[in-house]
Specification:
The complex is a heterodimer of chains A (about 240) and B (about 250).
Chain A: H1 2-25, H2 27-30, H3 38-60, E1 67-68, H4 74-89, E2 100-107, E3 112-117, E4 127-133, E5 139-146, E6 150-151, E7 154-155, E8 164-168, E9 171-175, E10 179-186, H5 190-193, E11 210-211, E12 215-222, E13 226-229, E14 236-238
Parallel strand pairs in A: 3-9, 3-13, 4-12, 4-14
Antiparallel strand pairs in A: 2-5, 5-12, 6-7, 6-11, 8-9
Chain B: H1 9-23, H2 25-42, E1 47-52, E2 56-63, H3 66-82, H4 86-91, H5 99-136, E3 140-141, H6 150-180, H7 184-196, H8 205-214, H9 219-243
Antiparallel strand pairs in B: 1-2
Helix pairs in contact in B: 1-5, 2-3, 2-5, 3-5, 3-6, 5-6, 5-9, 6-9
The chains are: A alpha/beta (about 240), B mainly alpha (about 250).
């Protein structure tokens, strides 16, 4: 695999050298050589002017349109999520309100609530917790929490389509949707990053990191309701 | 009556240098074409990364003028080879010249070309960024400020200049060697491609040589490495051409 990549890089390099050689050696045919005297100056002057105009335009871009975020380490993101995990597993949902993404209320008169993720059979990447609440009667409350998702320290949690919930008879369906998110980021040139802590050793490689926050489904049910999973592989945790 | 006027070493170098700058103008037009090409290629993103979980896929495209700097390096490399060719060398005999003034004028030309290429390559970074902002809607940036500080910009221009000049000196010695003996036309590519694949994929001497410069995180040390290497290459090229007694 490494060898294939090396050969591919070499081919790209050879093609690049070939293209540039072609440009330089065939200038005559392309008309560059026939441009005499001051015309060369004009080409260069117009190019320089265009670059200066772009520089001025760039300085006019409102900086509020763009965000800078310090790159976050995976450990830091994991610690944040562990705190959320601990709060929810101890039933301390009031302290987890910052991570609340959505909440759903359903009327429910059955004895058993079956939780069924629909995105992939037998698999759910999040955590499902339930709590029996004394005050509850004929109702089910579902809270959706998630850890934060970062890419290069930029929090894109709000861009992700969170799962929604549908109750059909006694089956609570977790409907997950796929999200494709793309960003454009202004990076620094390798001639600058080489002398900073963002040095990656490759001019075309930008050091980056990402973290995908996990989902926590927190279900509150009346005291007399049993909660089970539609699939034996998906675990439910009761919070007491 | 005949009059003999003696022209000093630096006066000759100066005259040859100005002659080269004015007669090699087409090289700068080529630089413009190549940098524009690199800017256009950079508009799709200089690099990108993707990351996914079960149902979320996120990708980031990074925009900078790194490709323009690399294109400028290759331009200087090829320009340096070209000015060592017979056609260009013979131009110098229009002046009272010797090998040393010829080489000195060439080095000064490559220095000037590298400075111009470094400044325009770094200015082109703003063109790439403006295009990325207009076309892709940039939302986040890699540094606390949208704009590099004057110190950062100067460092980037200086490092670009050093890289471009280094490639220029490499091209100059390779051109000189090839000119000395045609066998080098085959030996150099063989050594280069052989070096790429000697030993493990990442341990070839070409890779190690690149890392010698690219892995240097101290700007001062990087500058010293480039200046020493370029000087050695130019001294070697001058020594080789001085050995040749007739027009090559």
């Amino acid at each position: 695999m490494m060898m294939n990549i090396a050969i591919l890089q070499l081919l790209v390099f050879i093609v690049l050298i070939g293209v540039i050689m072609f440009f330089i050696k065939r200038q005559k045919k392309m008309g560059l050589m026939t441009i005499k005297g001051r015309s060369h100056n004009w080409i260069f002057s117009i190019y320089l002017l265009a670059l200066i105009v772009c520089t001025v335009i760039y300085f006019m871009i409102p900086s509020s349109d763009m965000t800078y975020s310090e790159p976050k380490s995976i450990e830091q993101s994991m610690e944040e999520e562990q705190e959320l995990h601990d709060r929810l597993f101890s039933g301390d949902i009031a302290e987890a309100s910052e991570n609340l993404r959505n909440e759903f209320y359903f009327e429910f008169t059955e004895d058993v609530l079956i939780v069924k993720p629909t995105y992939q059979d037998n698999y759910y990447s999040g955590n499902i917790l339930f709590e029996r609440v004394e005050d509850f009667e004929d109702e089910v409350q579902v809270y959706l929490y998630s850890g934060n998702s970062y890419i290069d320290g930029f929090d894109f949690t709000d861009r992700i389509d969170p799962p929604s919930f549908v109750l059909e008879e006694n089956e609570l369906q977790v409907i997950e949707r796929s999200s494709e998110i793309s960003f454009a980021k202004l990076a620094q040139e390798f001639t600058l990053t080489q002398f900073s802590d963002r040095h990656s050793g490759n001019p075309f490689h930008t050091e980056s990191s990402s973290y995908h926050g996990a989902y926590f489904v927190y279900i509150q049910v009346p005291m007399d309701v049993d909660v089970t999973s539609a699939y034996s592989d998906i675990e439910l945790t009761e919070v007491k | 009556m005949m009059s003999l006027s003696e022209i000093g070493f630096w006066a000759t170098v100066k005259r040859q240098f100005f002659f080269k700058v004015s007669s090699y103008k087409n090289a700068f037009s080529t630089l413009v074409v190549l940098q524009v090409l690199a800017i256009l290629l950079s508009m799709g993103g200089t690099s990108s990364m993707g990351s996914g979980s079960t149902n979320v896929f996120v990708s980031v495209s990074y925009y900078s003028s790194s490709a323009v700097i690399v294109f400028s390096m290759i331009w200087c490399f090829i320009t340096a080879i070209l000015i060592t060719t017979r056609a260009y060398r013979n131009d110098d005999f229009a002046f009272v010249t010797n090998r040393l003034t010829q080489n000195m004028a060439n080095i000064l030309f490559l220095l000037t070309a590298s400075v111009i290429a470094a400044i325009t390559a770094n200015l082109s970074g703003y063109a790439v960024r403006v295009a990325a902002y207009a076309l892709h809607g940039v939302e986040f940036v890699a540094s606390p400020s949208l704009f590099n500080t004057p110190g950062e910009w100067l460092m980037s221009v200086s490092a670009s200049f050093l890289y471009i000049f280094l490639l220029g000196s490499l091209g100059y010695i390779l051109g000189t060697l090839t000119h000395l003996n045609r066998l080098f036309m085959f030996i150099i590519p063989a050594v280069f491609f052989g070096g790429m694949f000697t030993g493990a994929a990442n341990d070839g001497f070409i890779t190690q040589t690149v890392l010698f410069f690219n892995d240097e995180t101290s700007f001062v040390l990087f500058m010293i490495k480039v200046i020493v290497t370029s000087s050695l290459l130019f001294i070697l090229a001058s020594w080789i051409t001085n050995k040749t007694e007739v027009r090559l």
